[in-house]
Amino acid sequence: MNKSSGTVILIIALGCCAPALSGCGGWWRTTPTTATRTGPAAPPAAAPLAPDVDASEGAIRYLEAKVKNNPDDFIAYNKLAGYYLRRQRETGEASHVALAARAAEASLAALPAEQNPAGLALLAQAAYAAHDFAAARGHAERLVAIAPRESYPYHLLCDALLELGEYEQAAAAFERLGRLEQFKTAATETRRARLALLRGETEQAARRFGDALALAHEERVVERETVAWCRWQLGETAFSVGDYETAERHYRDALTTFPDYHRALASLGRVRAARGDLASAVEHYERVTRILPDPSYVAALGDLYRLTGREREAAAQYALVEQIARLGAAKGALYDRQLALFYADHGLKPAEAYEIAARQYEARRDIYGADALAWAALKAGRLGEARARSREALRLGTRDARLLYHAGLIARAAGDSAAAREYLGRALELSPRFDPLQAAAARAALAELSS
Questions:
Q1: Taking the domain 3-195, which CATH number applies?
Q2: What's the sign of the alpha-carbon dihedral 52, 55, 57, 60?
Q3: Each residue of 278-294: pLDDT tens digit?
Q4: Residues 199, 170: contact at Cβ < 8 Å?
Q5: Predicted TM-score (pTM) of this structure
């Protein structure tokens, strides 16, 4: 089969169920809309977007039956994988990832990647969603070789490289992507926004997320999870620099678009805590943990219970964090970093926290992996390693109060009071209430150093 017919297969395989772009892998668009030729307009005000859960579930059941009767129907397998990935993005449910991977593998067994690039792209997305970023990179690199003049392989490659901490290679991939894409697309803007955040370019990141939001509204089919994700990312960007009022507005806009969107619900709980309304924060975290008991949400709820004097309930949430993480271990390393940070934040199991963080760092050397290892190393009494990894975590100039807070406590432990005061002061100036418990610890440490 020639290259042009392979492109036709890609388009047919995507059909009407191509997954919406998002923070978990994204997708592509082969041609820009008319609006993208003159630059994106401002996005419309937040409004509810209709869910398609019933249609999606119906399509999944139909496609599952179809491939059961015809195991060589690679197009049906690709559509099925796309629907599974969409459901994972909407719900956060990890079981959809394994289903998507199996469907993509079956598609590639029916027709190899050279004639079935959509199957390989879906497998790359499934690997990314499972946090197997090395595999995602490998699949994306193969896609680049198969379709070097297409932009979507570079979207997937940039995603994986950023998560692996291979920032120079990611910059090169972005440069190649810029030569391929004549017009802005939402898929590219979200990725450029992520790179800007890592580099500490917060205002640029906010502009790019705003452009992505406007472009997402111009798609032929407007995906509510995509729109909600962009609004949530605008909120995260505002929160990171302490603009809690703007952050809350974006989170509420995301929930207007997509009620019960777990990311926005959790972040709304966090910003309510930052604004001093602990009762509202508890309410939002209780709601989100009923929807999706992600370890980070459960731990945050435990912290809020602890702050409000509900010690027994806090202990129950902390025990649940470990239980969920252990159950998740059967599906890979999905929650390893969260568990290591949970232990280090709460002074629990320092040796195990270090072991988990070190294992994660060997596989994934991004700045947040370096920070997790630095924080766990400090708690495990490995001060030299903590200092080295903390420097690595700060190497891009990322404006993240948590990274600066960890660096401050590591500097204090090393006896460098001047550096400790600088880091802690910067953290609290950037986002004074970045975390209900850790920000309080940062304030206490700074006060002690300044006395």
A1: 1.25.40.10
A2: negative
A3: 999 999 999 999 999 99
A4: no
A5: 0.91
